[in-house]
Amino acid sequence: MIGGVLQIVGLLVGGVGMIGTSAVTGMPQWRVSAFIENNIIVFETIWEGLWMHCIRQANIRMQCKVYDSVLALSTDLQASRGLMCAGSVLSLLAFMVAIAGMKCTRCVRSSWQAKGYVILTAGLLFILSGAVELITVSWVANSIISDFYNPAVNVAQKRELGEALYLGWAASFCLIAAGTIFCCFFRCCEKTRSYGYSAPTHCSTDIQHLHRKTESSYSKSQYV
What we know:
Subcellular location: Cell junction, Tight junction; Cell membrane
Protein name: Claudin
Transmembrane segments: 81-105, 117-145, 165-186
Order of helices and strands: HEEEEHHEH
Strand content: 5-15%
Keywords: Cell junction, Cell membrane, Membrane, Tight junction, Transmembrane, Transmembrane helix
CATH class of the domain at 1-28 and 74-154 and 162-194: Mainly Alpha
Membrane topology: Multi-pass membrane protein
């Protein structure tokens, strides 16, 4: 009962992380325009994402344009494209493998031990996808902070952390948490299975000892 609840919780947390990872990959709010010095009245906001950049004017009108070339992006955003796509694919694969290994599903027609290894695989994939996303988001955030405090960078080119980065951190923690839950579930099942195997062996040893003792008593009575 507890194992089934633990699997459902891990699947839900992993599903939230998977959806969050896909949303972060497509969101344009990775870099947000920073307003410093004498910029008191703000008329427009600039968003820069992995696939497009948007300009929002006075909270009324927003225009978005897809990048004409990958070379127009900075180095960190170019690498982030591939890493976030890989993280999204890994999280989706981990979610599907986790569904196949659930106790309530019959996708894998084999023993519970085989399903345990399927759950372990799903947990490792969740942790890997979460680590990839965490590294990507942290890398971009570090680049934004470094440029912000760099006096050589023009004020108009300085950016702040966007909402996509915060959502990316939350999604990566969900993926890692889901993977940890599935790995812990596999570990608990292995301990329970080992205890279950050792108990019958002990009982069978006692039965054999009792059987031998009974035979020896019968043999002595026959001699008497």
